[in-house]
Amino acid sequence: MAARPARYRPAQNRPAQHLPSAPQPRRVVVTGNRVAPTAVDTTVVVPTFNESANVAPLVERLGVALRGRSAEVLFVDDSTDGTPAEVARVAATADLPVRVLHREGDERVGGLAGAVSAGIAASDSDFVLVMDGDLQHPPEMVPELRDAADDVDLAVASRYGGGGDSSGLSSVYRRWVSSGSTALAQACFPRRVGRVCTDPMTGFFCFRRSAVDPSRLRPRGFKILLEILARHDLRVRELPFTFADRVAGESKASWRNGVQFAYQMLGLRMGRMTRFAAVGALGTLVNLAVMALLVRSGAGYVAAAVGAAEVSILHNFLLQERFVFRDVRDGPNSWSRRLAQHLAFNNAEALVRLPFLVLLVETWHVWALLAQAVTLAVAFVARFLFVSRVVYRPRRPRWAARTTRQHAEV
Fold it and tell me: Which positions, given as ranges, span the membrane (predicted)?
């Protein structure tokens, strides 16, 4: 039996339509021996921006990996260098059909996600496989990723599941940002993302066209997979892989990606975090009111802050049960266990906040109630992540658990 490429482990398509937010570019360059999209089993969509040095090795390795399969490669190119010409040169002798959709100026809508959406619209295959053009996604894994999608809706190559490895990220900072963004996405979408996908930030995945409605996507920024997961209820299989080092060219990651991610999260279904914030804001008012009442009754501000914290912690738990996490209360934790975890974390968090409260009041002479409000606001994200990921963690579907066991040793 042939060895499996890289590392492997777990986690649809009517005729293509153009997205409202990703209009068909006016100028389309077609290369290779294809003059129009032709029905094939799989279209490998490769969004590129100034990746001319990686085109030839990528196409060569894909040609070997996909030999004997019904597949094509579609570059969706936003480059300002010679990448389109390099694709044309390579396509002339490639082992499989290669096309390029070159977008210019205001045609470059939606960033990388918009490029992927344009590629989906320009293909008519049964399956669409998306990968980066910088060789950090191993082409040799493409056939397995495609085959993994046969009996599910979406197959995802994960850097964090099973034997996955994210060491190809160029710095510790990027790894922290990637892990933090993943945790936030899973917390905001515990059912559609959290319970089925360990790496919603990856750009290496394959989906069945019939399972994904392109008109529901609002491509922006870099994270098109997160859009797909958050807007559809999909069966997902994950295959762990090693995220390789960049071979040539420069990384396109920058602080702007963080801004785009924040914008994308706000544009997606943020109802849970919004409700959590509303409950937290009401809890803050309760906290401050109780603290003010206790201070007026003669208690010191530290004792008053502790008493107010206990009241607001219980208040927030009861409202979260009713209005924020009602739909995910069927997870593995019972009501009493959720209450115990909620109390334990929030009391620990209150103890951590207390020294900062004292510092603000005693050293910087900030009004006690204002200092309390500041510390509560700073701790908001930590509370949301813990409550979403631990207290109300969803029960993993049985089919997903079976998938995990099947691939645990691969």
Answer: 276-295, 366-386
